[in-house]
Amino acid sequence: MEGEDKRRVVFVTVGTTRFDSLVKSVDSEIVKQELFAKGYTHLLIQLGRGSYLPSKCEGDDGSLGVDYFTFSSTIAENIRSASLVISHAGSGSIFETLKVGKPLIVVVNEDLMDNHQIELAEELADRKHLYFASPQTLHQTISDMNLSSLIPYSPGDATPVAKHINRFLGFPDD
Q: Both ends of the chain: CA-CA distance in Å?
């Protein structure tokens, strides 16, 4: 269908947790305007256990269409069909997205104490595999992002990242 070819979906996932600050951020007018300005047409948000419900919108009026759901048995198809993924910093979501070669913005839940997920997100951002943001800086990250500057992730990269995380957590190197 002709309309489907022009659909550029941003898929947002919070995993199985509660991450209302991320959902509120992507539902803000400034983030939706930045996404629309970058050529995205639809925003699909997986809410997890959160209580904040975004504003649904069809997107027919020259704005971003917005829809959401709480849980799904798998988000693999949502990731594969997305033009951009915005994810919490869970390693499963990160590596599932990178494995299929989708551009990714990882947003760290700053409400979690001793959050080792920050280490993973920072390391992968330093390697130019993804962008890294907080809920407060997400709009600026979207505004500044240049997806052509991202380096495709190769599964062979996991060993140094895993070693880095293990050292951070105090496990000995093998």
A: 53
The full set of domains in the chain, from first to last, is 2-169 (3.40.50.2000)
Instruction: List all residues 6 or more positions away from 170 whose beta carbon is below 8 Å from its beta carbon.
Output: none
The stretch 26-53 carries a mean pLDDT of 96
- Quote the tokens at residue 149: 């500057």
What is the spatial distance between Cα 49 and Cα 170, in angstroms, rounded to a whole number? 31
Model confidence, pTM: 0.85
Contact of 137 with 30, CB cutoff 8 Å: no
